[in-house]
Predict the 3D structure of the following.
Amino acid sequence: MKSFADPQEIACRFNEDETVWREYARLRRLRCRFGLGVALPSDLLDRLDWLTAERKGRIVRCIGKVLS
């Protein structure tokens, strides 16, 4: 049985979170720098940036068989 606090798993999750955070910061900087003139509230734009960063940076863990 695996330990609840597996150091390898903790490091992997930390690195994944760091990747998502860096991508989010990059997307926000780009949006603020170029000011695309989108008529949406800034909190909604921040949320869209976060979702985009998660989609790029998170590993999708699936349960089941791999179908090819």
